[in-house]
Write a structure and sequence with these properties.
mainly beta, 60s Ribosomal Protein L30, Chain: A, seven-stranded antiparallel β-sheet, 8% helix, flat
């Protein structure tokens, strides 16, 4: 992964990150978030993956169900955010829509995915921090304003 700061003004920063074949998305973006001390940011991206694991939050069990995708897919849309977890460390929350060869789509929470050939990511950090706190009902770390 290569990244660059594109713009910085009054606490707002915009980065571009270009992931290459074999890069794992979550690990790469977590590394960038830690390196740049990102604490309140929005993420968007497009590209393609060789494989992925998408998950779905099951309300009844309060657990994520993982759905492996073992084929080349297009990243039609990737949106997410970076906030701070309860320990004050950057925490990613990413959803995406993947397009298959037959043009059907798969959508959900990104657990992991490997890039092939590229993923172009824009990260815009806000000067206001987003704090995540454990929600007692779901067990999820949700943004609390």
């Amino acid at each position: 992964m290569k990244s660059k700061l594109l713009h910085e003004d009054e606490g707002q920063r915009t980065f571009v990150a270009v992931l290459e074949t074999g890069d794992e998305i979550v690990a790469s973006l977590n590394a960038l978030a830690r390196e740049q001390s990102l604490s309140a940011a929005q993420i968007t991206a497009i590209g393609a993956l060789s494989d992925a694991v998408v998950s779905y939050f099951d309300w009844e069990t309060k657990k994520y169900l993982e759905i492996p995708i073992a084929e080349q897919v297009e990243v039609a849309s990737l949106n997410g955010d970076i906030g701070l977890d309860e320990a004050g460390k950057p925490a990613l929350h990413i959803h995406l829509v993947l397009g298959k060869r037959d043009c059907s789509a798969i959508a959900g929470h990104l657990a992991r995915g490997h890039v092939r050939p590229t993923l172009e990511v824009i990260i815009t950090e806000s000067p206001i921090h987003l704090q995540r706190r454990k929600d007692p009902e779901t067990g999820l770390n949700l943004i609390r304003l």
